[in-house]
Amino acid sequence: MTLGLFEKRIEGDDALMELARLRFQQARMGAEMHAATPEQLEGVMRFRPSVVEVTTEGRPATDLPVMVHLPRHFNLLNEENRNRIADMASAFAGRVYGMVMHDHPDLVSRSGEFLRAAEAMQSRLAQIRAGPILFVEYAAGLEPRMFARFFESIRKLTQISACIDIGHVGIKRARNTYASMHPGEDVCALKNQPSRIPELISDVETAVGAALPTVLDLVDVLGKLGRPVHFHLHDGHPLSKFSPFGVSDHLSFLMEMPLDFEYRGRRSVPLMFGRSGLHHVVKEAVQAIGRERVSFTLEIHPVSGQLPLGDASPLFNHWTDKTNAERMNQWLAVLRDNHAELLEGLNQSLK
Fold this sequence. Notes:
TIM Barrel; alpha/beta; eight-stranded parallel β-barrel; 41% helix
């Protein structure tokens, strides 16, 4: 199950969502949608991508899979949040595969309370026929092994499992590795200290190189639990300033980090994963967790640039200025190209 971030993060009307639906359908890519209420989700589900399958019975349309990303502030300990999750799960049973919520910094220090909250959530979700799985995402910067320990404690809960955000895990590991070499310093802060980067770039590369092994280790640990695992896939680099949200990840796997100076004969360095790292993660996921129990969302944020609309031009006949439409089309093209790379990695893992 392969999906992409399905949102209108660029200003404009619903023609942008129609463009997203068209491009997702062409790529046969499922959609991960953000929503806080059933009403919000219903509004986005109007644009749910589907594909037409040619069969002996005609040309029936098949909906592509949907994952729902819940608000960042949702906390498993909060009973009201649990009630809202259960309500949404019930309202969209059979229509969405899963729901994603963030973990919390207190997951370790208040592990007993989180265990009881998970059991209460399980009780609600288990009553919903064809209800979605709730995936708890690595997002709060816990030590990956401590994050995994929580899921070891709830391994018998059939409706709750883990979401590994490989970019978040990678950046956490890069920060820790760099801090071990430069105590008290944050490698992600170097992006705002350009004069120091040339002398420290070798240590930055060492820190970045620690990301992939840490992700693979977490995949192996969670794979032993025999539970479904969802993945948020995106690349990153501590020096990245591409994100308008100030984060160092949510980047395409098909780029490198540009430098303002020459290093080892080049003016760029690899990101944490790249194509090869993506393929390694996918292969490890399939082998450790199982082909039928993994799902992947490309959670890559909008990129700069514009791309002519081509076959989607009629969607914007009512627009005078097509700039934002072409910006959206460029972002969707990056998602499409990364999706093709993801599928290539899956194909290789199954050989």
